[in-house]
Amino acid sequence: MRCFCAVALLGGLIVLPVMGEDLVQVKGKVVLDKDSKVPNRTPLVFDKDKDVCAKDTDPNSENWVVDPKTRGIRDVIVYIVSEPTAEQAAIIAKDKARAKVELVFDPAKIPAQLKAPPKEPVVFDQPCCRYIPHVAVGRVGQPVLIKNSAPIPHNAQWTSANNGEFNPLLAPGGQKEVPALVAERNVITIGCTIHPWMKAYLKVVDTPYYAVTDKNGEFTIKDLPAGKYRIVYFHPEGGFFGGALGRFGTPIEIKPTGGDLPQIDWKIE
User: Fold this and answer.
1) 121 and 190 co-located in one domain
2) Whole-prediction pTM value?
């Protein structure tokens, strides 16, 4: 059995073994590059159902949400996959960003308790005139639930390549379920044709190791076996960190004795 004390390292990714297992917890941070200006969030203009929309506690655009003090970037999707096989690496080297390769986490290295996707759905709610959360991650095989807890009707305009398309009217208290997500390269978008400023994003991954950065740009991923992997950063507006080839991630090595990665400085053009 192993037990190591947590050590906080500023601006890095912290790796800590978990009591009783050779599993680790990783923490990291994504911030706005020092040369980039913090984007202004434009106030939303409600031209419909104003009384309900006005109850929103954060009625501003969510294209880029950056904390002006910490410069942390919210809503960055982070996930960890295995290194490409020799065959995959050859295809990537040859075809670059066009390579028809989708990296996943090696099933043989996934702990038994994480092999099956979560039974609990990824939930999007519409309590006012905004989707909460704005960005989420779902695992292949996991269900999705879109709710309308507002006192007014909403739509759930779902657009995807492999997970179908629909746009049902959701009456107050209504909901729409997607039984099980299938693999999808592009991000799924969810909108509302009644309130066209509403938008949410869902990334489907085939790995149990994922997170979305919080308001300070921070994230935590738990129960990861030590080893060599790739870590991927994606933002709905900014795409993959590192450009198109960023979808294949950045090599990392996680050691049972601890380790760290530099904080990610994201430049917004």
Assistant:
1) yes
2) 0.90
